[in-house]
Design brief:
The protein is an alpha/beta fold and 289 residues long. It is built from seven helices and 17 strands. The two termini are 36 Å apart.
Length: 289
């Protein structure tokens, strides 16, 4: 299923993960359905069929591959061209790359880290996709690398996805900022939004009944980042607060969990996150057993 988030310029695609105690990146007691997300950024083409630039942020879980690729084909056309940006080299982000390459014309790949996250996909060498890879890096350099580097992705003329490595991360991770839609792509942070039923909405906005608490946010945060309760969280808290003050996003777009839409909603959930990271709130740290 897909949901339009901002006109025809931002769409979220993906499936749902049933939470029944077997999912390692959520609190064991968490129940309901967690959205697994990837995002399509588009610019409308001119009349007469001119090509419309497109960028896919992550590719979702393999279990949702047929659904994601089918929805993508309905949005951009079978076999159409697009670029792909991976926020992380983990399977919930890269799993559908190989079927994506088979079905669409993947023109550019933007990834980070030293290890190529798609080395295991044999078809990519035949597709000549390795030559289309661009290394994401905060520092542009032409020395010591065989891959082109980029700190930003040109989505379309006048529209750029700015890339930054967040201070809060487990493996090499990148956030993306799309000023055109006011969307901040936060990868595996802000993943706490859970749906009560599979036919519910995957977007929390001003029309949604939202019972989120700081305790819930802390539970999801510490389930993924298990080292956080033992860490000095103040620098992480300060970094996130400063980044949100700088960008003032209208949309938080995580790779898992409900999308948060509307500045009031974003600010409320930012408050939950900052409270969860406060060192004096020891009661928010999930207890073993």
């Amino acid at each position: 299923m897909f949901t339009t988030l901002k006109n025809d310029r931002l769409v979220v695609l993906g499936g749902l993960i049933p939470l029944d105690g077997r999912v390692s990146w959520v609190p064991p007691q968490s129940r309901g359905f967690q959205p697994s997300n990837c995002y399509l950024l588009s610019e409308p083409g001119a009349e007469g069929g001119e090509y419309a630039p497109r960028l896919l942020v992550d590719s979702g879980l393999a279990v949702h591959g047929d659904e994601i690729l089918g929805d993508l084909a309905s949005l951009i056309g079978e076999g159409a061209g697009l670029s792909v940006f991976f926020t992380r080299a983990e399977m919930d982000c890269v799993s559908n790359l190989e079927p994506l390459v088979r079905r669409f014309d993947v023109e550019r790949l933007f990834t980070g880290g030293v290890i190529n996250p798609f080395d295991a996909f044999e078809d990519l060498a035949r597709a000549g996709l390795r030559s289309r890879r661009r290394q994401i890096d905060a520092q542009r350099t032409s020395h010591g690398d065989s891959l082109a580097r980029s700190a930003a992705i040109d989505v379309a003329p006048g529209r750029t996805l700015e890339i930054e490595a967040p201070l809060l991360r487990l493996l090499m991770t990148f956030w993306g900022w799309d000023a055109e839609t006011g969307a901040l792509f936060t990868s595996d942070t802000f993943t706490h939004g859970v749906m009560d039923r599979p036919d519910g909405t995957r977007v929390i906005d001003s029309t949604t009944e939202d019972a989120t608490t700081a305790e819930q946010v802390a539970g999801h945060l510490f389930a993924k980042y298990e080292w956080l309760p033992r860490a000095n969280r103040e620098p992480l808290r300060d970094w996130i607060a400063a980044k949100f003050d700088e960008l003032d996003p209208e949309i938080i777009a995580p790779s898992r969990g409900c999308v948060l839409r509307g500045r009031d909603v974003v600010r409320r959930h930012l408050g939950f996150m900052l409270k969860a990271l406060e060192p004096q709130h020891a009661a928010l740290v999930p207890q073993a057993g």
